[in-house]
């Protein structure tokens, strides 16, 4: 993959391999603006509309549809065709009453799965980091750029802080309320968001600590057929205890 930082432009041959674009037909491709997802794990809204949803045949058609406010991301209208779309984002098309969630899928890295209007109100977000802010309260930094503050009564004994990094919170998109929490531990169902096992779903069998930082711990998972596979903890996205809290592609679990 070529260099992508610094410039406002991006050559098609240097774009992430999973983007469904005609690399040999066009020299340039739209580059996502800085936003909630890194370029390696996102796709510009224009490419999603034109090449994935196929609501347009050309870039100009897609740009017009987006500028008219026909697409919502996580409940908000996005008019910038360069807006980056990433894992677990909710895509809504109000005129057709369609709702989709962006899901990691094998080989393609990112795909869409149709969801109900009820499910579109919530979004699982992985905790990437935790910080202590003024007043001793805890701030959770999430994978999509959001920050959620956990208010604590006693900073010296923050019993309200029950959240671990790389765990998942189920967030209400209407009021940013935490509905559920899923830790990154044994017996939890998780989906892989990167690496060669991207898109695979399994139950965590073992988490093997190492000398390196937590993100590099090795995780063993078992899929629905009983096959085991391993990946790094940084690629593990918890999505359920007894069953997934979100709709998955058919056959994934």
Description of the molecule:
With 253 residues, the protein is mostly beta strands. The protein has 2 helices and 19 strands. It has helices at residues 45-52, 59-67; strands at 10-11, 28-29, 43-44, 72-73, 76-77, 84-85, 90-93, 98-105, 109-114, 122-132, 138-142, 147-150, 168-172, 178-182, 189-192, 201-208, 218-222, 228-232, 236-240. The strands form 5 sheets. It has a 5-stranded antiparallel beta sheet with strand order 5-4-7-8-9, with no helix packed on it. Strands 12-11-10-13-14 form a 5-stranded antiparallel beta sheet, with no helix packed on it. It has a 5-stranded antiparallel beta sheet with strand order 18-17-16-15-19, with no helix packed on it. Strand 4 (72-73) and strand 5 form a beta hairpin. Helix 1 crosses helix 2. The longest helix is centred in the N-terminal third of the chain and has 9 residues, at 59-67. It is globular. The two termini are 32 Å apart. The model has no long low-confidence stretch (mean pLDDT 93).
